[in-house]
Structures are given as C-alpha cells and as structure tokens.
Amino acid sequence: MKLQGTRWFYTESPQYIDSLDVLTEHLRSLLASGTYVNDDWDPDGPILVEAKELVERIDGMKIEIYAKEHPPPHFHVVTANYRASFTLDKCELLDGTLPSKQRRKIEYWFSTMNAKSALIEIWNRTRPEGCVVGQYVGKSN
C-alpha cells in the first residue's frame, strides 16, 4: 500500500493503521515528504504542513525554498504585500510581482553574495523522494 499525500495533509491517519507494515510505509512516506508536524494550527490535533526553508532575510523580504515544487527549479520571495518566484539559474522572474526597488535588491543579492550556490545547496538538500523536479544539475556560478 502506498500512502498518498496532498499539499497539506496525508489522506491516511496513523490512528487507523492496523499493521506494522502499513505503519512503516506511512512513516517512510512521512519522512520523505518534505513536511513537518504543526500542532498549534488546528484545535483538533496536529497536522502535516508542507516544508519550506528560509534561505535569507533582506530588508523585510524572506527568500524561501519549498520542498515539493514544480519545474523549473526556483526560489520564492515573500514580503508583507507581495509574493514572487525567481528561477534558480538566472534569477529571472517566474511568477508574481515585486516592486522594482525590492526586485533590484534580490537581483543584487543573487549576483554578488554567493547566493546561487547557497540556493542550489538548499534546493538539492530539500528535494523529497518523488519530487517531480529533482536535484539541480546546472552550474552553480
């Protein structure tokens, strides 16, 4: 039996697992899923949340990489009012929007602070089993 996950939750609850083999598969899937347990969010009990890793904070902007992603390899920039994603290879805007001043700061950070190598290292380390994108194999500089 292969347990299936959704973006936020697993469809099988461990309380209904009745064999050690199924529990082992559930735990293996959980560990490979790029999720973490959040027991503060839901009053009914803990839930699994998709994992993300904070790469850097720059002037109120969070630069993050999410565990389960779609192609191409990319990173996210999150502010109080904006969300954008940029390609990992060239820091090109992929989706969303940022004001030009913040976008220039991200591009400067990417080009001068050895950021690409750090992004690639985190991207590759956080790829869960079965991720459709997989490891980044392009040049780090």
From TrEMBL:
Organism: Rheinheimera soli
InterPro entries: DUF4160
Designated name of the protein: DUF4160 domain-containing protein
One Pfam family matching this protein: DUF4160
